[in-house]
UniProtKB/TrEMBL annotation:
GO terms for molecular function: ATP binding; branched-chain amino acid transmembrane transporter activity. It is a multi-pass membrane protein. InterPro entries: ABC_transp_permease (IPR001851), LivM-like (IPR043428). This is ABC transporter ATP-binding protein. It is found in: Cell membrane. The keyword Nucleotide-binding applies. Keywords: ATP-binding, Cell membrane, Membrane, Nucleotide-binding, Transmembrane, Transmembrane helix.
Length: 325
């Protein structure tokens, strides 16, 4: 397929996904719509995470920080401004924090970068908690203005579609090529004239903007938020797991994995939370060992290869037994 045909195919698939998700509230129950909202939230978070971390191979654990900043911004300003302005402010403040954070830590790679982003997330969470305890005298916010369910759903759907659309367009842009070049060989990209520091900060800020907007939109779902809820590291860890298991470098992997994990979470987490966490761990191990490209890299040839490998393993085992006999 040519590049243009692939672009048309991806846009048609995205249009079909958006149409299906748009029609869902009209025939789905409250439980199905709630599950779909969780799906869309993780589609937006994991797809936007893959924009930067999938291409550059920088493992960021700061998603929950940007999510929490967006959620708190929305909770603070929603009574004074409109819904869309609150979401935009959440995205803007998260972007601003990402630029400052990126300028401080994006010269590091690997474990050091991952640990520092997680450390800064915890720092922000404890700073918000300390501020509320000492200045406002209470921890947490009750959201008095809550939009209708369909408004929240459509907003998160729009953010999920925009995240995937941004990923489609970014892969065909100079910024996307620069991010891929950094992931392949950062020093070579720098030698070829790429301003790697600026490109990394731009990609990191783009990821944060989506996480902040999703946090601002999802905060009203809880009606009461506190730092422990919205800066919860589990939100960031699950985003990373979804992107890695689905295929962080691929376009559709995070979306496929987000739907699968959200369904798994809603059906298992409440009644069997241990089984849910074990499932996450087992899927991650299997993905790393047998499917490093993620669920999106599954093809017919993959199953054929697994079948041939298992047959060869059985034959080798039989030969060893014959020699012993």
């Amino acid at each position: 397929m040519t590049s243009r045909q692939i672009l048309v195919r991806d846009l048609l698939l995205l249009l079909a996904f958006a149409g299906w998700a748009l029609a869902l509230p009209h025939y789905g129950s409250e439980f199905v719509v709630s599950m779909a909202l969780t799906c869309l939230m993780y589609v937006a978070l994991s797809s936007s995470w893959g924009l930067f971390c999938g291409t550059t191979r920088y493992l960021s654990l700061a998603t929950s920080a940007f999510f929490g900043i967006g959620a708190y911004t929305s909770a603070l300003v929603l009574e004074q401004v409109s819904w869309w302005q609150a979401v935009a402010l959440g995205a803007g403040l998260a972007t601003l924090v990402a630029v400052v954070m990126g300028a401080a830590v994006l010269h590091l790679r690997g474990t050091y970068f991952a640990v520092l982003t997680f450390g800064m997330t915890e720092l922000i969470r404890h700073a918000v908690t300390y501020f509320e305890k000492t200045v406002t005298g209470t921890v947490g916010r009750v959201l008095m203005v809550v939009p209708e369910r369909d408004t929240i759903y459509l907003t998160v759907l729009l953010l999920a579609v925009l995240a995937v659309l941004c990923s489609i367009l970014l892969r065909r842009s100079r910024l996307g090529l620069a991010l891929l070049g950094i992931g392949a060989d950062e020093q070579r990209a720098q030698t070829l004239g790429v301003n790697t520091r600026l490109v990394k900060i731009a990609g990191f800020a783009l990821t944060a903007a989506f996480a902040g907007a999703v946090g601002a939109a999802m905060s009203v779902r809880w009606t009461y938020i506190d730092p422990h809820t919205v800066f919860n590291p589990f939100i960031g860890f699950q985003t990373v797991l979804i992107a890695l298991i689905g295929g962080a470098v691929t376009l559709w992997g995070p979306l496929i994995a987000a739907i699968a994990f959200s369904v798994l979470a809603e059906t298992l987490r409440l009644q069997f939370p241990q089984i849910y966490m074990m499932s996450l761990g087992i899927l991650l191990i299997l993905s790393v060992l047998y499917l490093p490209g993620g669920l999106a890299s599954l093809r017919g040839s993959t199953f054929t290869g697994w079948w041939q490998s298992s047959r060869q393993w059985v034959r080798d085992l039989g030969r060893k037994e014959d020699r012993r006999g």
